[in-house]
Design a protein that fits this description.
The structure holds two protein chains of two kinds. Chain A is mainly alpha-helical. Chain A has 19 helices and two strands. Chain A has one domain (about 5-510). Classes of the chains: A mainly alpha, B mainly alpha. At the A-B interface, helix 5, helix 6 and helix 9 of A face helix 1, helix 2 and helix 3 of B.
Chain lengths: ~500, ~110
């Protein structure tokens, strides 16, 4: 019972509330409340990551202890994998709030923005911590509703259209999840993930099991924008204000999509060969199709949004390779390597895609356009934005010594060792096309042509925006250190262990 | 068993509406229909033949009672559904002000 765990949900909720109440009387203070909230959340998440050492610790809400080994209360579970995701949520959140201080000053009603932002953080932390499937749904909806509102924050034509698409598809996804929860409860009479695992392992109907799996994969796949379900993502992520795009692409699709898929399919369901093949295929498809859709884009934020689909494909594919090997029961060390690569890429993607969206926001802030045709020569008036976006572009295309190189290398090596040669080749080719598409971005935005074309004087963005961009660029470099064996064992290996070891997650909670 | 099938048909009706209707308000209504078929299903999973409310009575203990947990879940889900619907309607009203129409075919700024 670690009393710090529920604070990760309670503090952002309190922050949202205080922002609205105090913001009504004192203007200008909401941004500092949000900043303090995120700072506190980040501090607690990093403290739990370091002090927890990857061990599982459970907090039972309301103190409803298990009866005869059957959990009856709501469990919040903190382990190696959720610790890592919590850290990236609060870190990217903190830097986005810092960036918003200047960026959101252009919009009216900033206190609504900060309140919704804190609410979204609370929802995501809740999804990641919850050890109870119905609470995952509740927190999923909290983060979804606040993100619908944040996407529409500009209330212009494009924003409203994007949020409508996002809401309709998000609502359908939620109903799929709710139906799956109904089916799970019907057959197991429990909602606790660990207990569901224990009940299912005593025997289950195979087709019924498959129905639940398909419903959950569709529901969370829609939230994660894996390729057949991706239609809403480019619109929503490109229309939102830039710090929100950084949050949506950098964190939200991971916390409520990829994280939940990996968690449920490794720790709640038994790994089956059919599901493993399906997840690998979906991942490879997202990876390849996403990058081809990205390369033709001329709107920078749309280009980045399609790259999010492609990069998430890497994560899903490597998790799928790990599942395939585990389902066959062969070579668990290669499965562990693939999953480690996937989790490493998930963390890296949060850093570099967050940074790229903040760069895009900085360009929009100074030059007033998002169209690559209309810009050019921005490297001279905006040196810091140019340098940080170069770092992020190197990182996403996998150029050493940036973080993206190491995670892609681990994924490709694991695919080769697992004898998925075609997937390894595909991953390498996709990485090359990513490089080409980011060379286009760099050339048209920063180097080609003269800045005078835009017709107004272009200045570098204000200090808070620069600070968050530079911090993220440094993080992009520092994250490569995770590839070192000593640091990898401390941070990434506990996350992999909880997924690889089939019964570890549930046995520690149910005590069996 | 019939009740479950009817609930599934209700879900499909809602899905059909979401896919084929062109008026935004009708899409919102279809989403509500889908939503309520989910709630109905959750409530049905707790049903017992001849069950009564699970209220403890020491003198006369209840033998067969309906499962109260799905009912609590449905209440939570209804509250969430209310928030989602309100949010969707707010966006639809804003869209009507900007575009001057509810027709989804007219709302196509974003492409590619």
């Amino acid at each position: 019972m670690n009393p710090l765990i529920p604070l990760l949900v309670a503090i952002p909720l309190a922050g949202a509330f205080l922002t609205m109440i105090i913001g009504r009387f004192i203007t200008g203070i909401p941004r500092y409340i949000a900043l303090a909230t995120l700072l506190l959340t980040a501090f607690i998440s990093f403290w739990l990551l370091v002090a927890g050492g990857g061990d599982q610790s459970v907090y039972i809400m309301g103190g409803w202890e298990p009866v005869n080994g059957i959990p009856i209360g709501i469990h919040l579970v903190h382990d190696g994998f959720s610790a890592l995701v919590l850290c990236i949520i609060s870190l990217i959140g903190l830097l986005s709030v810092l960036y918003s201080i200047s960026y959101i000053a252009r919009y009216t009603s900033g206190n609504y923005f900060y309140a919704l932002f804190c609410l979204m953080i609370a929802g995501m932390n809740g999804v990641v911590l919850s050890g109870d499937i119905f609470n995952i749904f509740v927190f999923l909806e909290i983060s979804a509703i606040s993100s619908y509102a944040l996407v529409a924050f500009g209330v212009e034509k494009n924003e409203l259209e994007a949020t409508l698409k996002y809401q309709v598809l998000g609502a359908v996804a939620s109903f799929m999840v709710l139906f799956a929860i109904g089916f799970i409860y019907w057959s197991t009479k429990t909602l606790n993930i660990a207990d569901i695992r224990a009940v299912f392992s005593e025997g289950h109907d195979r087709s019924y099991y498959l129905l639940i799996q398909i419903l959950l994969l569709t529901g969370f796949g829609l939230k994660a924008a894996i390729i057949p379900f991706h239609a809403w993502l480019p619109d929503a992520h490109s229309s939102a204000p830039s710090p929100i795009s950084a949050m949506l692409s950098g964190v939200l699709i991971k916390a409520v999509g990829i994280y939940v898929i990996i968690r449920l399919f490794f720790n709640m369901f038994e790994i089956t060969g059919a599901m493993a093949v399906m997840i690998t295929t979906l991942g490879a498809l997202s990876m390849a199709v996403g990058v081809f859709l990205a390369i033709g884009q001329w709107d920078i934020k749309r280009l980045l949004a399609y790259h999010s689909i492609s990069q998430m494909g890497y994560v899903v594919m490597s998790a799928g390779i790990g599942m395939t090997l585990l389902a066959r029961g062969v070579r668990p060390e290669v499965a562990a390597l693939a999953i480690t690569g996937g989790i490493f890429h998930l963390v890296n993607h949060a850093a570099f895609k967050g940074l790229l969206f903040l760069n895009a926001g900085a360009i929009e802030y100074s030059a007033g356009t998002r169209d690559l045709h209309e810009m050019g020569g921005l490297a001279r008036p905006m040196p810091v934005t140019s340098a940080t976006s170069l770092a992020a572009s190197f990182s996403i295309s996998g150029i050493p010594p940036f973080n993206g190189f190491f995670s892609k290398l681990i994924i490709i090596v694991a695919a080769v060792m697992a004898r998925f040669y075609l997937l390894a080749a595909l991953a390498a080719v996709v990485s090359i096309i990513t490089l080409a598409s980011f060379m286009k971005f760099q050339r048209y935005a920063f180097y080609n042509g003269e800045p005078g074309r835009i017709g107004k004087e272009i200045k570098e963005v204000p200090l808070p925006m620069l600070m968050s961009m530079v911090t993220l660029a440094v993080i992009c470099l520092l994250l490569s250190l995770l590839a070192l064996p000593a640091i990898r064992d401390a941070v990434l290996t506990p996350a992999t262990d909880i997924l690889i070891d089939q019964m570890k997650y549930s046995s520690q909670i149910t005590g069996m | 068993m019939t009740a479950y099938w009817l609930c599934f048909i209700l879900f499909l009706t809602g899905l059909y509406g979401v896919i084929t209707r062109r008026n935004l308000v009708k899409i919102a209504i279809s989403l509500s229909v889908m939503e309520f078929s989910c709630f109905l299903f959750l409530a049905l999973t707790g049903y017992r033949e001849g069950g009564v409310a699970p209220i403890v009575d020491v003198a006369e203990p209840v033998q067969t009672y309906v499962d109260p947990l799905p009912q609590a879940m449905v209440l939570t889900a209804i509250v969430i559904g209310l928030a989602t619907t309100a949010m969707l309607m707010a966006v639809i009203i804003r869209i009507y002000r900007k575009y001057g129409t509810f027709d989804i075919r007219e709302i196509k700024n974003l492409r590619g």
